[in-house]
Amino acid sequence: MDTEQIESEQHANFIKQFAADVKEGMSQTPKKMYSKYFYDERGDELFQSIMKMDEYYLTAAEYEILSMQKEQLVADMKLMDAPFQLIEFGAGDGYKTKVLLRFLLESELDFEYIPIDISTSVLVQLENSLQEELPDLKVRPIAKDYFSALEDLKSNNIRKVILFLGSNIGNFTKNNAPGFLTQLSDRMNPDDYLLMGVDLKKDPNVILAAYNDKNGITRAFNLNLLNRINQELGGDFDIFNFEHFPIYDPVSGATKSYLISKREQTVCISSLDLQIHFEAGEPIDMEISQKYSIKDLKDLASKSGFNVVKNYFDCKHLFTDTLWSIK
Ligand SMILES: C[S@@+](CC[C@H](N)C(=O)[O-])C[C@H]1O[C@@H](n2cnc3c(N)ncnc32)[C@H](O)[C@@H]1O
Question: What's the 264 CA to ligand 1 centre distance in angstroms?
């Protein structure tokens, strides 16, 4: 098979899985979407706008940590001697990772960068920008879901540093996060590290504003998934019939985003031969963004086969990059 055939087969498999997940999610109570499908080309663009919003403090906080503490971080990971792979789950546009990549190159370390992302469009964008900005970097992008990428992880004995930045772990519920992280720790060796960006519990108003910006960018980001279903699966969602509704529960630390049906309506998805009935006021559960305390993180590490090596904070202690090794 040539590259074109492989890509078209991969795309067909992706659409098949997307369709199955939409069908399954729409049959649940409450109805549910899987947030990994937010990221088509328009979704990537909207997320990049979210990262630039004043309200979305997460990006600036993590950028500060990586910029100000990169020397210490790299020293703590003891990266100076052997070659290693820098594997990033859910890399996105690599805006913050580039700080680390540039520093690792300047330090003349021997490594390969392997960004993994479900969005092929963001990976192409990332690869092109890296070629221009860091031409000496060895890059091997992988367009896969986290779970299928996990299967490739233990295929060699090269040292690994795994990045999971930008609060991506927050998209797992507190119950599901240990299962995913245990699969990671099972595939890591004692001198490998995981560096994970985690959003911390804090003033609930600050958190909620990050998911409910005044310009409606997060709203558009959520509604875009309905547009994607229309385009790729033949749906007839009218996005004006749904409203974005985020909530933050300071006890559990979960931010949940819902789309609320403004009226009773029936939506058809032709490729699934599916009719979905919505009551007025009925929610679709779109996304979770789980926040953690430092104690929560210690418990999560322990449940998942990890030790916390060190936590790095921004100056306002809004966010942490937490460095873990296996037990
Ligand atoms: C919130 S963005 C963060 C991007 C980047 N880590 C950052 O900090 O800027 C999440 C990224 O993870 C990717 N992603 C989400 N769910 C995924 C999954 N199940 N498998 C692979 N990639 C996923 C999305 O396509 C998106 O690029």
Answer: 33
